[in-house]
Amino acid sequence: MLLRVRAGGDAEAWPSDAFWTGLAAVVVALVLVAVLLVVIAVVAFKVISRTFGGEGGEQRIIAFAVKRLRKEAAKNGWRVSEDDTHAARLLDERRNHPLPGVEPEPPVAKALVALTGAHRGRRFWAGAFEAADEEDGDLVVWFDLPATKPALDVRERDDWEPDGEEPREDADPREDGLLTGNADFDARFLVRAADPDHARAALTPEVIAHLLASRSLAGFWVRGRMVGMDVPFGFSFRGIALASLNKAVDLVELIPDRALR
Q1: 134: helix, coil or strand?
Q2: Who's near 257: CB < 8 A, 6+ residues apart?
Q3: Please, which residues have CB within 8 angstroms of residue 75's CB and are 6 or more apart in sequence?
């Protein structure tokens, strides 16, 4: 404890009893706030678990997403549908344009939810699609192309499973991929292409820099008359598709026209 001399010459203890009383009140308030936040988090977790977990949880999640998407679609002139067989067939067209020496994508069993329309001047399809040999659906966005282009696949190396199997630990995946000359990009992404010249035309320095800087885009693919990518839907106050579509269009607009037309 310290002694502080006041103007009149009297000494008083510092910190004073009032100081300690105020400090104790602040600590108690902070503890109460922390306890309240924990209670809110626990209650929210239980509500979410009961709403979306357990038996039928996936259906409830889809129903929730569809409800939100319908509102968003109405504002933007898009169309939303569930179990869209037409969208599933369109995505399945990728199998008709395989990469040499690589197993084609598994057939699409159904579209859990599909969204279509035009955004920033580009016709798009998006949705969650369930593969025939998988339980979980993939979130995919793709755009129509005016002409058929050579197959191209650019994706993060951790996501790539050549021939349906994990690569051997002692294997060098660069032996089967196309190198761009950008060391950071080549270390993170694996490029497989039916036409190397087409791949080099698509992977400009701007596209490479955009993919390296992105935290949500793990690459893109070109199959026939489609260019697409996996872009997770982001729940926000603006909607659950708009931000994702913007990310997809931002990337596609960087790819030169000569690689897509």
Answers
A1: coil
A2: none
A3: 239
| CB neighbour list of residue 244: distance below 8 Å, 6 or more residues apart | 126, 139, 141, 231, 232, 233, 234
pLDDT digits (tens, 9 = 90+) for 50-101: 554 555 555 666 677 677 778 888 888 888 887 778 888 888 888 888 887 7
Q: How far apart are the first and last CA of the chain?
A: 80
Q: Which two tokens stand for residue 203?
A: 């992977």
Contact 173, 162 (CB under 8 A): yes
Question: Token pair of 161, please?
Answer: 């499973």
pTM check: above 0.70: no
For the cut 70, the answer to whether the pLDDT of residue 181 exceeds it is yes
Q: Please state the three-class secondary structure of 68-126 as a single string.
A: HHHHHHHHHCCEEEECCHHHHHHHHHHHHCCCCCCCCCCCEEEEEEEEEEEECCEEEEE
Which tokens go with 191? 């490029």
* E strand or H helix that includes residue 143: strand 137-156
